[in-house]
Amino acid sequence: MTVMNQDVQVAIADNFIESCSKLPVDSREKAFRFLLKFKRNPLGQGANLEKLTMCRDKNLYSARIDKASRAILKKSESGSVLLLLWADTHDEAYRWAQNRVCEINPETGAIQLYTVDEQTIANERAPEETQTGLFANVRDRHLLKLGVPKALLPKIHRMQQKIDLIEAEDEVPRDCFEALTFLADGEPLEDVLLLVDELRGEQERVDTSDFEKALINPYSQQKFYVGPSEKELKAALDAPLEKWRVFLHPSQRKIVQRDWNGPVRLLGGAGTGKTVVALHRAKWLAENRCTADQKILVTTFTKNLATDIANNLAAICLDGQMAHVEVVNLDRWVNEFLQRNNYRFTIDYGKQADELWRKAFESRSDSLDSKFDEKFFREEWANIIQPEEVLTLKEYFKVSRTGRGIRMGRKERKLVWPVFEEYRVLQNERGIREPADAMRDACGLLQHMGKKPFNHVIVDEAQDMSSQAFKLLRTMVDEHPNDIFITGDAHQRIYGRPVVLGRCGIEVRGRSKKLKINYRTTDEIKTWAISVLQGVSVDDLDGGEDRFEQYTSLLHGENPCIRRFENVEKEVEGVVELISALKANGLAQESLCVVARTNSVVDSYGTMLNERGVPTYRILGTAIDERKKQGVRLATMHRVKGLEFDAMIIAGANADMIPNAALTTDDPMVKVSILNKERALLHVAATRAKKYVFVTGYGEQSPFLEM
Q1: Angle between helices 467-475 and 330-340 (to 10 degrees)
Q2: Which residue ranges does the record assign to the UvrD-like helicase ATP-binding domain (predicted)?
């Protein structure tokens, strides 16, 4: 946070917020009061600023929080900037400060905080050409260009393996740690240098004494909180681990805070912060690009994701900003919009489909081959007729059916078409429409109404949206700068089917970006979750292919653990033991989640866990996860999309459940689609975990676990 007061800027580091959360309970509340008082009058007598002469950085100071606790600050030489860096008990705060250095990097212009230990100072390393180790092939001038402080060069060259870099994470500035991680993962130096240069943008000459200017640097804003409201400050202290609320990576900030000359597509693997970018994009548009009567639509596929987004957006937006924003899943918006406009149909989400298809199938020609069973018609409708918007037999003759299991010429198409016509007739008689039909009808209404309902549209989890949905979204907003912003990852497609945005009137060429740093899961979990998708070709939402390139996690931990048991009772006992061990390791039961493939299986595991003394809390389809309610979380694998936990226990990972044996088909195209979605579902469940993944089951193991 940066606050102007008496010509002094006060900025709060992420370290400070996190360290405040570890103070004793009484001191935490006093730390909040200290912050409010300090930001109003940083040079007041109550601050009791004391210069720390024993520190390596000669411009570090301490300030009194209460009798037992101290804050550590950096004061610029001009005295115009104060940076709050750390909070701790008296002696520990001074010990933390002793070898810390806070300065402006002469290459990047970013404010960096790092540790210089005695070994680094004492070490006089050999010339570069004699060096061995993790970064032996990287010259000093390149390390400096990546943002490595000159004082840390000996430390970097001592690193022999990636584990040495991982263990030094808290001692190395965040920006150069990321660059070094890319190098350690095998990325070419030239590519990493290009990436860093792209994020920095045009650089003026760096003045290493100008902290006011340095606070504007995107790498500085990744670490220092810039935002004057007390609401934001209180929210940050109440949820210190939810750094996304206030700290954006430069790659994210560059996407959020700019004008785009048309639709934007943002890709990125699980945990890269796509939803965070969407939230901050909505906030930025509301604050900077909306006049009094202009509206922003933030939409997604499911109700529960829309609920989660609305709650998270309210946490970072002021009331005046939220007044510009409508957060709703698209199906609900369509339903409400059509009802307001006297729509004469009811939208059916599948409840009546079985009966209507049975009746339509009964009307088939007696000369129709037996291979054209009811399942064929339903799959043909879902995969060809609806997505390709086939309304007449003439259109059906022309449409491509590439990949479908049964080859059909004009004769066969003419024979089967009456069944589809009868299905339409039955829908009309019942007065119902499917969601895709309702979206087409909504498009027609909007085109005749003239004025569009929104000035900006933001779509999250776009991989699950249909082509009809994107055509509707294009109709909901006029074509102009900043009109449509789309985030998605087809590796996580668990509902929809591939679409091509360009065919839906949404042109994203030249405005496509990709996030590459995973902030949620450990590298070990990320690697395992990617292996689940081995052999699956994934689209980029616009007709191309999306690959896991430069997808890096900065966190490390234990490998996911697969455990097999004799029967379900033994499995549940094993899950109880896992929960006990995780709690003994310091994890709160609210941060543990047990998931299974279906609602009935989840309920079954919940009952057995309760019988064994484990309190549980069920996250239902449309309800939010109320973290204040006690109990190990229980949910379906679908429901946890968009959530995160310290540990995920994926239970019932048996051959007949993952993939779900109930989803059977003889059509090769549909079969591939089903299996890909089932793999994506396991990938999604695993990537909800921040620290641990356990996969349990009994009997025959899921084939997806055979890697």
Answers
A1: 60
A2: 247-522
Residue 270 marked in a binding site = yes
* Residue 263 · residue 480 · CB < 8 Å: no
Q: State the DSSP string of 28-89.
A: HHHHHHHHHHHHH-TTSGGG--EE-TTSSSTTEEEEESSSSEEEEEEE-TTSSEEEEEEEEE
Tell me: is residue 522 an annotated ligand-binding position. no
Has 621 been labeled as part of a binding site?
no
| Bridge-based pairing state of the strands 325-327 and 69-75 | unpaired
Q: What is the DSSP-derived secondary structure letter of residue 138?
A: S
Sheet strands (E) in 190-250: 224-225
Residue 405 annotated as part of some ligand binding site:
no
Which tens digit of pLDDT belongs to each residue from 129-138?
446 889 999 9
Q: Does 109 carry a binding-site annotation?
A: no
Is 274 known to sit in a ligand binding site? Answer: yes
Residue 150 DSSP code = G
Q: Check whether 496 is labelled as a binding-site residue.
A: no
Distance (Å, whole) CA 526 – CA 268: 13
**Furthest-apart CA atoms within the chain: distance in Å:** 96
Ligand-binding annotation for 273, yes or no, is yes
> pLDDT tens-digit profile of 566-608?
999 999 999 999 999 999 999 999 999 999 999 999 999 999 9
C-alpha separations of 119 from 56, 125, 154, 330, 457 in Å: 14, 11, 9, 58, 54
CB 655 within 8 A of CB 610: no
User: What is the C-alpha separation between 492 and 465, in angstroms, rounded?
Assistant: 12
**Distance from C-alpha of 300 to C-alpha of 462, rounded to nearest angstrom:** 7
Q: What is the pTM of this model?
A: 0.90
